[in-house]
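Tokens in:
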């Protein structure tokens, strides 16, 4: 049986989450989920949320990124990052499980 590692979160992503929470005066977790849909079969749902009891919690410096049990296999060994480009700043996911992805970067197939 293959051992799948949980996703990794970059320092840059944790730092941006801290900036968002400081500006909002709140301490929400960044939820990263996978759901059906999108132009390639699956899409990422990235939003601020409260951790649930059965979530995997990735934590650094008081900031939390959470992944639910259903999404976890789709995000094994993935890297959650934050990028700033000409098209805008956003959280991104580098997912080795995705066989293809669309141009928008939020949809993928396995």
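Residues out:
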């Amino acid at each position: 049986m293959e051992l799948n590692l949980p996703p990794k979160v970059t320092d840059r992503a944790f730092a941006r989450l801290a900036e968002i929470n400081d500006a909002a005066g709140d301490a929400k977790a960044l939820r990263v989920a996978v759901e059906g849909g999108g132009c390639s079969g699956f899409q990422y749902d990235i939003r601020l949320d409260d951790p649930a009891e059965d979530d995997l919690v990735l934590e650094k410096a008081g900031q939390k990124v959470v992944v639910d049990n259903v999404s976890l296999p789709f995000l094994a060994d993935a890297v959650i990052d934050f990028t700033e480009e000409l098209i805008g700043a956003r959280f991104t996911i580098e997912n080795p499980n995705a066989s293809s992805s669309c141009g928008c970067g939020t949809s993928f197939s396995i």
